Amino acid sequence: xxxxxxxxxxxxxxxDTALRFLAQRPRTEYEVRERLRRAGVDQAAxxxxxxxxxxxxxxxxxxxxxxWVEQRQVARPRGARLLRSELRQHGVEAATAxxxxxVVDDSAEADAYRAATRRAHQLAELDERxxxxxxxxxxxxxxxxxxxxxxxxxxxxxxxxx
Length: 162
Known about the structure:
By secondary structure, this protein is mainly α. The chain is 70% helix and 0% strand.
């Protein structure tokens, strides 16, 4: 009986390495290129593999950005500023990141309220000044703009005193 012996990692085809990398979760073109570069693949083979992945629609930065924003807003709401920053860290172009994060602007106050409600309960024992300050800082770290933060903090403060 013959056993199948897998090729050494360095001998694996670049497209196979990229597909294994993409199997874990969606990735950006930048992430795939970096992964192949770390695997020691030459630039021509990287370009060919990325082109093939794009052709089969397995690599699409705009779709990645849209999916990233949707997933983030469901799990832990964030402001457009932080979403743009996260997308840029994944190698998404600025214009694509801006377009994907623009969707969040319409629901920014509702998202900030959802994010802050649980935190407001944790801060319930604080005096009003500390409550507003800490809740505002929490929302700022989540990437919400100051107008949204002020409205949400005031809303939660009034709900707290009612």
